[in-house]
From TrEMBL:
Residues 234-353 form the Orn/DAP/Arg decarboxylase 2 C-terminal domain. It catalyses: carboxynorspermidine + H(+) = norspermidine + CO2; carboxyspermidine + H(+) = spermidine + CO2. One of its GO terms (biological process) is nor-spermidine biosynthetic process. GO terms for molecular function: diaminopimelate decarboxylase activity. This is Carboxynorspermidine/carboxyspermidine decarboxylase.
Length: 397
């Protein structure tokens, strides 16, 4: 084990890290941010944080050292950007609420509309707000429209915004040939943890349908799904694509990756509470939950990696199905093998559990949320937040 955090967790005498607990490694987050910053500097573009993938606001001061802003998809996310990134938000919400819209405007620098009908409904309020901002010598809000290029290589339908019936983005036949006054951006988002070659093919489809509108735009938001921090990602190819597109259309380019920011930056620590024989299958019951604490593993679905465990069953080694602590029958993941039998009190450490995990946790069945901590760059642990009854009760009435 070459990571100080993992060496610490592997200490048989125990640690000060509670269980269950999300643990972010600051050094790994900084490593990702440095790579992402090198891309935005080399390509001459802007990359911002997507809160839907990583909303750990205690880490925002570090993020701000490299990224200038963040994108939000709800008023609550917008407020988090304002309060902890200390900047207006790049905002995209599939449908704006009338009673929230004015506050959304005042808290945003960019506003993307999901449909032409949304633009029709709210554009006069935007124009009035921007006129007053100009009169007061204050920044205005730049508006754009989300488009659907009708091309996506995302295999899981739940995560594919281009399937027939998708509510996300306007297709070309729904838009005019001329962008109206006040609408100066094009936004698309059809990737999900994809590489730059998928982006290249996506850009071909985008340009085939929206070339005329792209030439009229001032900025184009490429959305998220650009997993540039994954090992093997060709960042030079990405930079080349971005430069060529920026030059061809004379636009500012914005990327808002979700997974890439916190990719491989931390773990979820859990503990074995019981080991049972279930009709010939050994089951280890944990103090965490796949349904409540790792819902992406069931939605995507994918099988998370566990440190010091075999990802697939190995003949002759102790093998277990892992169960969560809720009463949901499907709250389990299997099967993993280990070098030694599991026992009550053993620690299991789930790898890569910071992006799209912490943001989706629930208190289903009244289970406590995992604590949140940071493994600092000086190799010390800091507990940021722990949860109890109040966190469960406050979601109910």
């Amino acid at each position: 084990m070459n990571s100080p955090l993992l060496q610490y967790l592997d200490n048989p005498t125990g640690t000060s890290i509670p269980s269950p607990c999300f643990v972010l490694e600051e050094a790994k987050l900084r490593r990702n941010l440095q790579l992402i910053d090198s891309v935005q500097q080399s390509a001459g573009i802007t990359i911002i944080l997507a809160l839907k993938g990583f909303s750990m606001y205690s880490a925002f001061p570090l993020v701000r050292e490299y990224l200038s802003g963040a994108t939000a998809s709800s008023l609550n996310e917008i407020r988090l950007v304002n309060d902890y990134m200390h900047v207006p938000a790049h905002t995209y919400i599939p449908a704006y609420r009338d009673d929230e819209f004015d506050e959304v405007l005042t808290r945003s620098s960019h506003l993307t509309f999901n449909s032409w009908s949304q633009w029709d409904r709210f554009n006069e309020r935007v124009a009035a707000y921007n006129a007053q901002q100009q009169a007061d010598g204050k920044p205005t809000v730049s508006c754009g429209i989300r488009v659907n290029p009708q091309y996506s290589e995302v295999a899981t339908e739940m995560y594919n915004p281009c399937v027939p019936g998708s509510r996300l983005g306007a297709t070309r036949n729904q838009l005019p040939d001329q962008l109206p006054d006040g609408l100066e951006g094009i936004h698309f988002h059809t990737l999900c943890e994809n590489d730059s070659f998928t982006l290249e093919r996506t850009l071909t489809a985008l340009e085939e349908r929206f070339d005329k509108l792209l030439h009229q735009a001032k900025w184009v938001n490429f959305g998220g799904g650009h997993l540039m921090t994954r090992e093997g990602y060709d960042t030079e190819h990405l930079i080349g694509l971005l430069k060529a597109f920026r030059t061809k259309y004379n636009v500012d380019i914005i990327l808002e990756p979700g997974s890439a920011i916190a990719w491989q930056t931390g773990v979820l620590v859990s503990t074995v509470l019981d080991v049972v024989d279930s009709q010939g299958i050994d089951v280890a019951i944990l103090d965490t939950s796949f349904a409540a604490h790792m819902p992406d593993t069931l939605e995507m679905p994918y099988k998370p990696r566990i440190l010091n465990a075999y990802h697939e069953p190995v003949a002759g080694k102790p093998t277990y199905r892992l169960g969560g602590m809720t009463c949901l029958a499907g709250d389990f993941m299997g099967d993993y093998s280990f070098d030694a039998p599991l026992a009550i009190g053993d620690k299991l450490v789930f790898d890569d559990m910071i992006h799209y995990t912490m943001v989706k946790t629930t208190t289903f069945n009244g289970v406590n949320l995992p604590s949140i901590g940071v493994w600092k760059e000086d190799n010390s642990f800091s507990l940021v937040r722990s949860y109890g009854y109040e966190s469960f009760k406050d979601r109910l009435s």
